[in-house]
Amino acid sequence: MTYNIAFFVLLAASSSVVTIKQFLKCGNGAERNCCDRNETCAYWASIGECTNNADWMLPNCQLSCRSCGSNSGYLKCGKGAERNCCDRNETCAYWASIGECTNNAEWMLPNCQLSCRSCGSNSEVTTREYLKCEGNCCDRNETCAYWASIGECRNNADWMLPNCQLSCQSCNTNSNKPSKPSSTSMCGTGRDSKCCDREKSCADWASWGECENRPSFMLRKCKLSCNACRPTLPKASGLERCRDNGMTREVRQKLLDMHNKYRMMVAKGQAKDKAGGNAPMAARMLKMEYDCDIEENAMRHAVGCAWGHSAQHERENLGENLYYSTNPRMNHVKAAEDACKLWFDELATRGVGQEDNILTDEVWNKPGQIGHYTQMVWQDSYKLGCYVNSCPSMTYVVCQYGPQGNWIDDPIYETGSPCTTDDDCMCSNCKCSRSEGLCIVQ
């Protein structure tokens, strides 16, 4: 997520009028032919213009809109019966509107399933009922074989395994294969009663090796079936081990302390929510640790002084928050403090207001931004690395978080009274800090 201030908006607006020189900024490596043709593309992309003004933005701001291919790390899925029907590129809706589902079906159908309505019997592309079987093992869409050939049985298992059984070879009749969890067996028992599967197909997926093949998905959705009820979490490096790279211990400590201060407030139910009352208490909020490797990754983006998020492939499984001040000589400790406060204040100024604390599309798409706050307090994001850089025209703060948070339709954190015993943390190497209400990775 990003944050923009009014002064920057004015500068961006004026530059589009007075700057008449030709501008071209292209990516590196595989993105070398993916270019922005206006110097304010990154800003416009950050405020949603790739979607709101797609007709102009997509051809002119390809780099900032990530509209040059499908490797953008973007995922938008439907609701209800379509929750497993997803677009994998933020420009899918635009391409679908100009007929690309038909004209470029080979790429569009697997990558823009939601916009092309190509996820099942309600397809606008495949209007006739389709069924191809061998015995009782069937495909229910005529493009199953193609999707299976490009890896969708694994990449989009939620939809593919039940609908493309024949092509995915997911009709295993082995009597030793676990049955799908019933509504009464989605959670463990005894001390693991709060360890649950969130999808009914978890046991099947786990039996096919998906816990190892797709850990970022499975360990979020299928903790019970993956035997991940009480995982052993890897320790972060600690700020003492970070190299001399322009950051100081004081700045690192300020960033870490601010994040944990806010996580403690949330855990104890002391954080005001604009939607009403306070944010719910957190049952097992992890205390953040500083990680030097993540700092190095954040530094690589910050030193470029280019406003806008880093590419997803440059920060695999890391979330990211950005802040800048137009004062290029701003004190770095002050910049760190202001950034954290501004991000967290989204709870009080925009609000979440979800009793179940789920990051839904409705929450994400509220006017304004909420994603800085949700990433700061995302329960499973316990490693932090940041870099503060004095650029020619701004002071730039980049913070990255591991593991990545802000997964749509996942809980921001587990609600409930904060931990009072180590066992409450449900982590094999965690210790409960009762005074903070946080779980500390040992």
Q: Which class of secondary structure composition applies to the elements?
A: alpha+beta
Query: The CATH topology of the largest domain, please?
Result: Pathogenesis-related Protein p14a
CA gyration radius, whole angstroms: 23 Å
Low-confidence spans: pLDDT under 50, at least 5 residues? 2-21, 121-128, 172-184
CATH architecture of the largest domain: 3-Layer(aba) Sandwich
Could you tell me the strand content as a percent range? Answer: 5-15%
The chain-level mean pLDDT equals 82
Account of the protein in words:
Mean pLDDT is 82; it is low at 2-21, 121-128 and 172-184. The strands form five sheets. Strands 7-9-10-8 form a four-stranded mixed β-sheet, with helices on both faces. The protein folds into four domains: 25-111, no CATH class; 132-163, no CATH class; 200-227, no CATH class; 249-441, 3-Layer(aba) Sandwich (Pathogenesis-related Protein p14a), CATH 3.40.33. With 442 residues, it is α+β, with helices and mostly antiparallel strands. It has 22 helices and twelve strands. Residues 34-68, 85-119, 137-171, 195-229 form the ShKT domain. Disulfide bonds join 34-68, 85-119, 137-171, 195-229. Residues 1-20 form the signal peptide.
Topology, pairings included?
Blueprint: H1 6-18, E1 25-26, E2 35-36, H2 41-46, H3 49-52, H4 54-60, H5 62-65, E3 76-77, E4 86-87, H6 92-97, H7 100-103, H8 105-111, H9 113-116, E5 132-134, E6 137-139, H10 144-149, H11 152-155, H12 157-163, H13 165-168, H14 202-207, H15 210-213, H16 215-221, H17 249-267, E7 289-290, H18 292-302, E8 319-325, H19 332-344, H20 346-349, H21 361-364, H22 371-376, E9 383-390, E10 395-402, E11 430-433, E12 438-441
Parallel strand pairs: 7-9
Antiparallel strand pairs: 1-2, 3-4, 5-6, 8-10, 9-10, 11-12
Helix pairs in contact: 17-19
GO cellular component, one term: extracellular region
Protein name: ShKT domain-containing protein
InterPro entries: Allrgn_V5/Tpx1_CS, CAP_dom, CAP_sf, CRISP-related, ShKT_dom, V5_allergen-like
